[in-house]
Amino acid sequence: MRERERVSSQMATVCPVASLHQEANPSRLKVGSVKTLAESSNLTSIPSHYAFTTSASGDQAVHSDHDDSIPVIDFSLLSSSNPDQRRKVVSDLAKACQDWGFFMVINHGVPESQMKAMGDMLTGFFDLTEEEKREFEGKHVLDGIRWGTSFNASVDKVFFWRDYLKVRVHPKFYCPSKPEGFSEVLAEYAGAVRKLARGLLKGISESLGLEPGYIDEAMNMDSSLQILTANLYPPCPQPELAMGMPPHSDHGLLTILMQNGIGGLQVHHGGKWVKIDPIPNAFLVNTGDHLEIMSNGKYKSVLHRAVVNNKDTRISIVLSNGPSPDTVVTPAEQLVDGESNRAKYIGMKYKDFLELQQSSVLDGKSVLERVHLS
Ligand code: OGA
Ligand code: NI
Fold first, then answer.
1. pTM for this one?
2. Where is the Fe2OG dioxygenase domain (predicted)?
3. Which of 75, 162, 340, 342 has a CA-to-CA distance to 108 between 20 and 30 Å?
4. Which ligand 1 atom is nearest residue 314's CA?
């Protein structure tokens, strides 16, 4: 079986969601947040609309092997004046993108104080009352601010044990007006992470044999679409039946994630689900669908999922760094040659791809499949 088919048939056993573009169910009851549900007294079991028939427990995750653990990239070496050190980190990036599609980044230049301030702001945001948060409930996928639950509550058949806040932060900056001071903290943090993303993309360009500035220019990164997703996973009385986030790949070029020290993220690697333990103050970075498209499949986006637990509230703060919304992303010309290495993807405007994904049921890499040619 081809890798893609193998992976998606595996996914079917994990996440029995229906096909893309189900009709929204107008008679669906409005669901409240998982936070409110989890805090309601005497919750000993989950409501049936949160229960997956085949759960994560039927598909046990493992810890990574000692000799194949998640790669660690020292970002500071990319600006080293020592050419050997630079060459080494570029080759580490190539290996990380090819073998894992996920890596930890240390010495990333984002101050700890900014990371902590972001964590505090998001905790503060999710602690607002349901009524206050409802003010930020988005209606459309292109709304700048969207607080919600599950993935796409109007089409999801089974709900995910997750509340979220999604905010577009670049090229146009949005931010909820609460809690106080959020917008200064978010603007600063997002700027620092964007700088990190562009720095990593330089190294990644080089690792593909392209000019260091190639991706930055071709993807119009001055107008990069950057979206914050903060995920709240409250304790769940039956974590083995629920799912925080189903297997999916990320749509952008690079996703940069921090979390509150509680694990839950699992990465599909070497045919298994591998648990990723948080490293304090490091970022977790993964390659997205549009890096797969621009690299003509050399660097594939990787499936990952989030499971929940019955003890601790987990918060993850995720920044997706993508091309500018109007960029039509195609494989880099230099990576394609006539017969032996044809373009494997058709070009699509980044914002059109996004709209397709956000209006669908989250289902593995199904949106990327639509632009994949072979
Ligand atoms: C995401 C994501 C994982 C997590 O937001 O795209 O994969 O651990 N989150 O919350
Ligand atoms: Ni993701």
1. 0.90
2. 223-323
3. 162
4. 10
Q: Is the CB of 304 within 6 Å of ligand 1? A: yes
pLDDT at 1 over 70: no
Average pLDDT over residues 40-48: 87
Q: Per DSSP, which regions of the chain are E strands?
A: 62-63, 72-74, 102-106, 145-149, 163-170, 226-233, 245-248, 254-259, 265-269, 272-275, 283-287, 304-306, 314-321, 328-329, 348-349
Sign of CA dihedral 37, 43, 48, 51: positive
Type of residue found at 227: I
| Candidate of 257, 274, 301, 319 to mutate for ligand 1, largest count of ligand atoms within 8 Å of Cβ | 257
Q: Which of 233, 318, 321, 358 to mutate to test the pocket of ligand 1 (most atoms within 8 A of CB)?
A: 318
Which residue in 255, 253, 274, 248 sits closest to 263, CA to CA? 274
For the CA of 231, the closest atom of ligand 1 is 10
High-pLDDT (> 70) share of the chain, %: 89
Query: 200 vs 196, 213, 289, CA distance in Å?
Result: 6, 11, 16
